[in-house]
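TEACHING EXERCISE
Course module: macromolecular assemblies
Task: Read the component lines below, then compare them to the predicted structure of the full complex.
Student: A.B.
Group: 4
Components provided:
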Amino acid sequence: MSNLLYLEDIFQKLRMGYHLSPEDEPIFSAVTGNYEAYAAQFSLLGLKLKRHSRDFFYFDPDGNDGTRETLPRMAVFSYILIDHIANKGKPIEEFLLTTPFLVSQLPHLSMDRYRDLLRQVDVEDEAGLRLIIKSMERLGWAKFLGEDEFRFLRPFHRMFDKCLELSEKSPNAKTESEFEK
Amino acid sequence: MKVPPQKFFNFCAAQVPLLRALNEQEGEVSESDVRRLIRSTSSSDELPETTWKRLAELQILVPVEPGSDFYVMAEQVRRLLSYLFDEANAATPQIISGYIDSIEALDDQLSRAIEVEDLFGARLALEELQQTLRRIQSDLDQTHRSILTEVSRYKTERGVSVREKFRRIRHWMERYVDPIVEMVRVDGPLHATFDETERLLQRAREHGLYNDLPGLERNFRQLRLIQRHALRIFQQCRRELQPLYDSLRRASFIAEGAAIALERMQREGVTACADAVVVKVLTLRWQHAPSDPAIERAILSVAEYQPVPPPLLVLNAEERMPESYLRRVWLEQLSTMIDQDLPVPDLLEWLTQHFPEKDTDSALSGFTRLIFAPDIAVHFTENQFRRYETSDGVLEGSPVRLTRA
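Instructor-supplied answer key:
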């Protein structure tokens, strides 16, 4: 039997799609301090424990076909927020990861374009937005600080990664890479 | 037309807000635009019509072409106002390149003057050189200040999108900083030209063409100072812009990615493009996992497994010779067997007596084989028919005699 600390707790969290970040002490420190051993342990079950460059952990979803129905909602929610912040000229990552937000003051229901997208995933009001944030909380991407207030956690970087991936695949990406030369 | 300085500055002193507003106009302005600005900024008792006339008389505004209704602020006035309002303009690579060309031309002039010991020509070249060096120094300072202003503007301005900011900072890097750093670096064209200038100044001193030694020393110092200064300033500019550039570049790509995702979801519908835009997350549900008793059963099956020896294969199962094979062998041997009995008066009699177990079919096959055997001669007779019994029938025919061929 393995003597890795909190192994069962860690597995129970990760298997549900949770992302371990510094908010999850003491198990986060346990994994950080002994990542290879945990990764080896989970690999026996065919699971790949990933360590993100921003230092958080999750199970690699490659080959996992089961897409939760909450994921498209979270995607719509996140893209809208990133778009809004970018249009305001704020530093996207810094602003999103350091600023507490109020559900009642989110931009999602302020524009028709955003509302139409949310309607596609059956979100019509603040209660719907709150449910999305709850889903994110279950993945370790966000954390409610009160009834209305929440903030994003480090694993929200996965959304930024997705944005970068989409941008890289776009036809304009070539121009950007040419500029880099 | 010469502009009276006192009149010019008196007018300027009374019309500072108007001049500032005109200075902020980019490109051409129409007469009506100027009149509107006069009305909105006027703080003196002067009539708007008089102000308009003075702007033209004092050559503060000049028509873009003769007779045109569109005007631009005279370049000299714009420079003066930029200086007065502390508005720095960045030097473009073309400006720096122009200075380099100008110094190269002065170097030629100085070189010729040294050759022919033309004291006057050398003095003129040196004076112009000093002027050019002062301009370079001033432009470098202005560039530094304008980049610092731009950087602080990026940090404080609101309402400009991340992508727009990135486009602008990219413009600064591409248009100003990177090309100018290339020019002013140690192995770049500015240093090469300055080195040549310094060499010529040394020669001028050695030839005693220029007796103002402190002036020459000043030129040397200025040349070296500007070389160092130019490189330092543009490296600093790069250092100021680079972190902003990096962070805005990343932010711009993130913004672009989000915009692409939103646009796609709008166009195709969220469900249709979910695979492409959603961040995947692994979820293991219990129904996917085997239960504990199942695992236990599997482990027990492995642990209690009793190996069974593999079955032995009977490799010589076919012990009985096949009939067809035996028949073939018999037929092949017939000619050898009959050979010792030759001559044989009646072939069928020989066959049925020697091989009574053979059926009619085999007897006739043996008959045919022996008839066509190469070493045997066959003699068909017309003797009386005889009966020959095989194991399964009776054959009738005249005897056939065989002899050795």
